[in-house]
Amino acid sequence: MSGCVWGAAPLLEALGRLWEVQAPLGSGSSASVYRVRCCGDPRAPPGAVKEFVPPPPRPGPARRPGARPPAADCAEYGFRKERAALEQLRGHRNIVTLYGVFTNHYSANGPSRCLLLELLDISVSELLLHSSNQGCSMWMIQHCARDVLEALAFLHHKGYVHADLKPRNILWSAEEECFKLIDFGLSFKEGNQDVKYIQTDGYRAPEAELQNCLAQAGLQSETECTSAVDLWSLGIVLLEMFSGMKLKHTVQSQEWKTNSSAIIDRIFASEGVVNSAIPAYHLRDLIKSMLHCDQGKRASAEKALCSPFFSIPFAPHIEDLVMLPTPVLRLLNVLSDASLQCEEEYEDILEDIREECQKYGPVVSLLIPKENPGKGQVFVEYANAGDSKAAQKMLTGKIFDAS
After folding, report:
1. Given CB 3.0 to 4.6 Å as the disulfide criterion, which of 55, 60, 220, 329 pairs with 388?
2. Predicted pLDDT at 216
């Protein structure tokens, strides 16, 4: 599986198919991610290619025995590490799907290794930006917390630690209507930690912070990082989703280290938090259970899933439905009762709606219930969530009639 013409033409060959490179999605120190779509099959779901890019070779003396491996070796190691993790964790609905691997022989700096992945939608980081410092809805927080905990329970059971859980690495799957974990570049098997510098500032557990500091000083930590570091990170993510605030400086403050519980209480009691009117004690207690400084007292993912917080039925806000697209578009207040009662008028409007909706992509199915539940609403299923999202922008507020 190889062959790519990244530069001259935005096409690549992978898994026996030709893919168009549509846009860059992001880049890090050793890898770049691109949105791709399968050529010749408009119904095929788009994908994402993560390319581990070797840096340009630098002239210089030969590497000394025992010296740090060159960056090219690091790129190959990162590829092998993430591939192994994704292959062993394949099949869980809350973990990004690996479709396959291939080599890009046309990279400017020599052959590069690539992962072809499921394309996901909006990240929790982007959702926090949209929340305008008011916090996410309780429905969204609950949905995200449950999905991520399900993923963590699975990968911890497999012996893995994610080790870089943060808002940018939790993405919404519009096709499956759930949150998924991505980026396993720092993951490791518990008891076999091969990377000392784990997690990201602001989401780093105390034991990982200590380990990092000791490693910088050339010392060995007596405490190993375990799956508990992932629960700490998730606790911070949920606290940020509730408050709508980035908490990096808060969790690095001396006040937090002295009494984090009091700061959490203060956040939940704040008048500036939209959710403060909702009895959120269960969420507060769930977050506290993840943020014990002593990793031995931190809740496991399986135990956290038993929290009473998950027994509360929250309904999504209209903003949630707009921000978290799905392949199914729901239009409200589109038809009058009179249109529903007249069969001929109903059929004409149905055809008009189908014709209008098909302007934005292939329509898989269309339903307009004549009775409750859903009476008068229009449900349009598109082949993919991108088409649904485009249609929603243009059709929301539009009224159809037979005149």
Report:
1. 329
2. 84
pLDDT tens track for 365-403: 888 887 776 677 888 888 877 788 788 878 776 666 655
Superfamily assignment of 325-395 in CATH? RRM (RNA recognition motif) domain (3.30.70.330)
> What is the 3-state composition of the chain as percent helix, strand, coil, each rounded to the nearest 5?
40, 20, 40
3-class secondary structure, 166: coil
- Residues with catalytic annotation? 164
Distance CA 279, CA 269 (A): 11
- Higher per-residue pLDDT: 106 or 297: 297
| Residue 156 to residue 120: CA distance in whole angstroms | 23
For domain 124-320, the CATH class is mainly alpha
Residue 113 near residue 79, CB atoms below 8 Å:
yes
pLDDT value of residue 69: 46
Residues of the chain with CATH 3.30.70.330: 325-395
- Please report where in the chains the tokens 């149905």 appear, as a residue: 350
Higher pLDDT among residues 212 and 142, named by residue: 142
Domain 4-58+67-118: CATH architecture, name and number where available: Orthogonal Bundle (1.10)
DSSP 288-319: HHH--SSGGGSPPHHHHTTSGGGGS-PPPPHH
Question: Range(s) for CATH 1.10.510.10 in the chain?
Answer: 4-58+67-118, 124-320
pLDDT digits (tens, 9 = 90+) for 185-217: 999 999 888 888 899 999 999 999 999 888 888
